[in-house]
Specification:
The complex is a heterotrimer of chains A (499), B (224) and C (216).
Chain A lengths: L8 H36 L7 H31 L7 H24 L22 H33 L2 H4 L2 H5 L9 H32 L7 H23 L1 H11 L7 H13 L16 H15 L1 H14 L8 H23 L2 H7 L4 H26 L9 H27 L13 H32 L18
Chain B lengths: L5 H17 L3 H12 L1 H7 L3 H21 L3 H11 L2 H14 L3 H9 L1 H23 L3 H25 L10 H28 L23
Helix pairs in contact in B: 2-4, 4-8, 4-10, 6-8, 7-8, 9-10
Chain C lengths: L8 H29 L8 H11 L2 E2 L4 E4 L4 E3 L7 E7 L6 H15 L9 E7 L7 H11 L6 E5 L3 H11 L3 E3 L5 E3 L3 E4 L4 E6 L4 H11 L1
Parallel strand pairs in C: 4-5, 5-6
Antiparallel strand pairs in C: 1-10, 2-3, 2-6, 4-9, 7-8, 9-10
The chains are: A mainly alpha (499), B mainly alpha (224), C alpha+beta (216).
Chain lengths: 499, 224, 216
């Protein structure tokens, strides 16, 4: 019954098509959302005039859309590489995409036709108390859309868990605990398995919590008498949202673990330090969400202190292990720098750079004055654009390359600098804007901050043009590479060598 | 969904044979059922909302589950095929159990003997038995999905009982209602934790298959 | 795959069709039962159910003898021909019964002055006859201003009659383990024909008074 090699090419083609469909969806949505983001920056820069309601509608769509496609793009990276180790179901992959698209239609209807603009965080009790700005049905449709998307991801993670268990027996083994806590026999699972396991564990928990609070809020929308404790609701929403968005970078980083070793011809080892940091983050990533609640004095003090401490601690392990690992891998390897390896390398810098503002903002005394400013979007735009999305673009260049030695064009190189330079400028304009607006308390946008918004809009334009080129290049090359996936199946990191 | 039923059968049949050896079978199910039906047990378990909802009702469904499991692999498969597979069974269990989660159904069961009789008949027949038939063929993903939804819905139901501004059962006190609500929340957390925890400890079954990079084998890793 | 290849595509198609058909049937019957069991998604609790039920079919009440705060005995049936507002209380109660008493006082006060005891009466019925003696009821009446003619406080001395009355009204009284009771509290309206015709929530005093005004 056991098949020793995978020879079923129709299966491979289906899987490849699935991954490309994910990337296509992600690219289309990301581009649209980037344009929405640009419009918002132009509004803040007072270069266009749209008024608050369209602004918050765009902000709601931008948030929901970006978080959603970060999940979709991360899942594409993870699924593509994980499939080389375990037997995943293409049917489930496509079911998730179909449910995602259904959810997107519901959310778009809710925002564009129903005027819902309570932000993607649907913070209780805002969706139910619109003061006539949107209907109960619009709020319900938005939350039901998120619920449908959540169901899709639940199925995807259940399939991943099933496949990992079939291969490795238990999640503990898949995290490499026998090697971590016992004798390191060098047979620890490869990084892709470890990362996928971690993501699956935290997302399963996050999704169940998210589904629960969404259902509670849906009930509350129609029966307001059934009150929800606002702090409980906020805690649950932030837990779900924070875990989900954090998980996207842990999925995307698999591209680094898989692709850099192919470039350097050195395996990425799952040594004890690596295993320890991933296991530690599995736990910690679920407890850092209170670092967004440090301004909320109503929250129990222990929760805030926990957010502060774990927020500090979790900045370090995976980032350090991955960054150090990548340096060691590249050092004197004679690596050929092309778009893929460059983007992946930059992504590690972007991740680290993006984590720093969070580290600073995670300090309670700083948070009191910083958290209500553009400093926070500065933080997550850095690590999502220059970290997470750069990993995805690196992966797209890797997939799209017709053969090993195909040279990059001049435009590719220009796009690379547009993207990295644009993102840096864009993020810094957020961070400076945030720093200048301390201590901001009300929903006002003072004229003194407008220059930063103008710079931000210009840099946004630059980074969007870079991203647009990356995407065009990938889809233009697709025809050439569809039949050529035989190039990829050998994961160099698989036979882990003992440390 | 592309969960293949094919490769399951060989293993499932083997599992069923083992199960028949150790099967709790019909006798214990009937015994528990009869015990539950005695006036003493009824009075005791229906005295509080928590025991009524979280002990008596699950036990009644459990009797149906045990009884259907004792049918044996072949008869179970035939019955399931006649019923149209796992999806209708799951739907029946969902709808029937939803009915008995209605506060007024709990009240009615206490004051109306016919409703009480209906409870004793439908919980094993329409909740427990269909679940038993559907459980294995649902596949690992289906079972995980059911388990996750159960935890989520139970937590939400617990919140409903806690958040209700009025006493929702005329036969039970507000204190009882609060107790039942918290019990459901803790039970939901416990069920989810137990499920997730079980994925951590399940040992490798059989010889190490790690020589194969990709096995097209259907993962049968979690079963309960 | 020992079993998989046996299954032809037509077989699988038929199986899917059957699955869909049975699922649809189960969904239809199941949601039908839930719809019926909640009176069309209106009544999820027994309390809501009894209110819906009474509106649909006003209920005949059993013949019971009451004893009021003055010690006078009278039949519930004596109110026939008048509108009667009924609430169930026990005088040791320190929670919901206080609200009930206040509600009755408001209802009485909101009635037009010319409406006398001939058109409408109010009666607060105690389900704790052992402790609620006439003297005790007089105290309660004085506290809320029940005059003993338009608004009377009364108990049902006969336990069997009390049970029958509570059952007809759908009132369930349970021991709260602290020397008191928990009971479903509501405002009941008995029509001129002596049937229980409407039940309103405690916070719907305005609607209840309005309904009485319509009927007067």
């Amino acid at each position: 019954m056991l098949t020793t090699t995978h020879t079923t090419t129709t299966d491979d083609r289906g899987a490849q098509t699935g991954v490309v469909a994910y990337l296509f969806t992600a690219a289309a949505v990301v581009l649209l959302m980037m344009l929405f983001g640009l419009l918002m920056r132009l509004e803040q820069a007072q270069l266009i005039e749209m008024g608050p309601q369209p602004f918050y509608k765009l902000m709601t769509l931008h948030g929901a859309g970006m978080v959603g496609i970060a999940g979709i793009a991360g899942a594409a990276v993870m699924w593509h590489f994980l499939r080389q180790y375990v037997a995943l179901s293409t049917g489930i992959l496509m079911t998730n995409l179909a449910l995602f698209l259904a959810g997107v239609v519901m959310i778009l209807t809710s925002v564009l036709l129903g005027d819902f603009h309570g932000a993607w965080t649907f913070l209780f009790p805002l969706p139910g108390q619109s003061m006539g700005m949107w209907s109960t049905q619009a709020a319900a449709l938005f939350m039901a859309g998120l619920l449908v998307i959540g169901v899709g991801f639940l199925l995807l993670h259940l399939d991943i868990a099933r496949a990992i268990l079939a291969r490795h027996g238990s999640l503990a083994r898949a995290l490499g605990w026998p090697q971590l806590f016992g004798r390191d026999d060098g047979k620890a699972p490869p990084p892709t398995i470890v990362a996928s396991t971690m993501v699956t564990i935290v997302n399963l928990i996050g999704l169940v919590v998210g589904a629960s609070i969404l259902t509670m809020m849906l009930v509350n929308l129609y029966v307001p008498g059934l009150q929800i404790d606002a702090l409980l609701a906020k805690g649950m929403i932030y837990f779900f949202g924070h875990v989900f968005i954090n998980a996207t970078i842990y999925m995307a980083v698999i591209a680094v673990y898989e692709i850099l070793p192919r470039y350097t011809q050195r395996p990425w080892k799952s040594n004890r330090v690596f295993l320890a940091s991933w296991s530690a983050s599995t736990l910690m990533v679920m407890f850092i969400f209170p670092h967004h609640l440090l301004m909320d004095f109503a929250f129990p003090k222990w929760m805030l202190i926990m957010g502060h401490v774990i927020g500090y601690l979790n900045t370090v392990p995976i980032l350090l292990v991955t960054g150090y690992g990548a340096l060691m891998l590249v050092y004197r390897s004679g690596i050929r720098w092309d778009m893929s390896s460059r983007l992946l390398y930059v992504s590690l810098f972007g991740w680290a750079a993006g984590a720093m503002p969070a580290f600073i903002d995670g300090t309670i005394s700083v948070n009191y004055v910083m958290h209500n400013t553009l400093w926070v979007p500065g933080h997550f735009h850095t690590y999502l654009l220059l970290g997470m999305l750069a990993m995805v673009f690196g992966f797209m260049y890797y997939l799209g390359k017709p053969d090993r030695d195909a040279p990059d064009g001049l435009l590719d190189r220009i796009a690379f600098w547009c993207y990295t330079g644009g993102t840096l400028g864009f993020a810094l304009s957020f961070l400076y804007g945030g720093k200048e607006s301390v201590a901001r308390r009300y929903a006002v946008h003072l004229p003194e901050w407008v220059p930063y918004d103008k710079a931000g809009a210009a840099f946004a334009l630059l980074l969007i043009s870079g991203a647009l080129w990356f995407m065009l290049r990938f889809f233009a090359r697709l025809g050439q590479t569809r039949h050529d996936h035989a190039r990829t199946p050998e994961p160099a990191s698989c036979p882990a060598v003992t440390a | 969904m592309s969960i293949t039923i094919g490769p399951l059968h060989g293993r499932a049949r083997r599992a069923a044979r083992i199960e028949q050896l150790h099967a709790p079978g019909l006798a214990p199910a009937s015994l528990i059922y009869l015990l539950l039906a005695t006036p003493w047990a009824r009075q005791w378990l229906e005295a509080t909302m928590s025991a009524h909802m979280l002990v008596q009702i699950p036990l009644l469904a459990g009797c149906g589950f045990l009884a259907a499991s004792a049918l044996g692999e072949a008869r179970q498969a035939r019955l399931l095929a006649a019923l149209g597979g796992p999806v209708p069974c799951l739907l029946a269990a969902l709808l029937a159990s939803s009915y008995w989660m209605l506060p007024r159904a709990l009240d009615a069961a206490l004051v109306d003997p016919l409703t009480e009789l209906a409870k004793f008949l439908t919980l094993p027949a329409l909740v427990g038995a269909p679940l038993a038939l559907a459980w294995r063929p649902l596949g690992a993903i289906g079972r995980g999905f059911v388990w996750n939804n159960l935890a989520s819905m139970l937590a939400v139901l617990g919140w409903l009982y806690l958040a209700a501004p009025v006493r929702i059962c005329n036969s039970y006190s507000v204190f009882d209602q609060t107790h039942a609500g918290w019990s459901m929340v803790w039970l939901a957390l416990g069920l989810f934790g137990a499920w997730l925890g079980s994925l951590f400890v399940r040992p490798l079954s059989g010889p190490n298959r790690s020589q194969t990079r990709v096995s097209t084998q259907e993962g049968q890793a979690w079963t309960t | 795959m020992p079993c998989g290849d046996r299954m032809s595509t037509t077989h699988a198609g038929a199986g899917l069709l059957r699955s869909l058909a049975v699922s649809a049937l189960v969904a239809l019957v199941g949601s039908g039962v839930l719809w019926w069991g909640t009176d069309g998604a209106r009544a999820f609790t027994a309390e809501a159910a009894r209110r819906v039920e009474i509106l649909r079919a006003p209920r005949v009440l059993p013949a019971v003898t009451l004893e009021d705060q003055g010690g006078a005995r009278f039949a519930l049936d004596a109110y026939r021909g008048r509108l009667l507002a009924v609430e169930f209380i026990y005088t040791h109660c320190d929670s919901v019964c206080l609200s009930l008493g206040m509600a009755f006082r408001q209802i009485r006060d909101q009635l037009p002055a010319q409406v006398g005891g001939q058109e409408l009466a109010l009666v607060s019925i105690s389900f704790d006859p052992a402790r609620d003696t006439p003297a005790r009821m007089r105290e309660y009446a004085a506290r809320f201003g029940a005059d003993g003619s338009v608004w009377r406080i009364a108990r049902v001395p006969d336990p069997a009659e009390l049970d029958a009355l509570l059952e007809a009204f759908g009132v369930i009284v349970i021991d709260d383990q602290r020397g008191g009771y928990e009971h479903n509290a509501a405002l009941h309206l008995v029509g001129r024909d002596g049937r229980l015709s409407e039940i309103r929530d405690l916070d719907e005093i305005a609607a209840f008074t309005e309904r009485i005004g319509d009927l007067l």
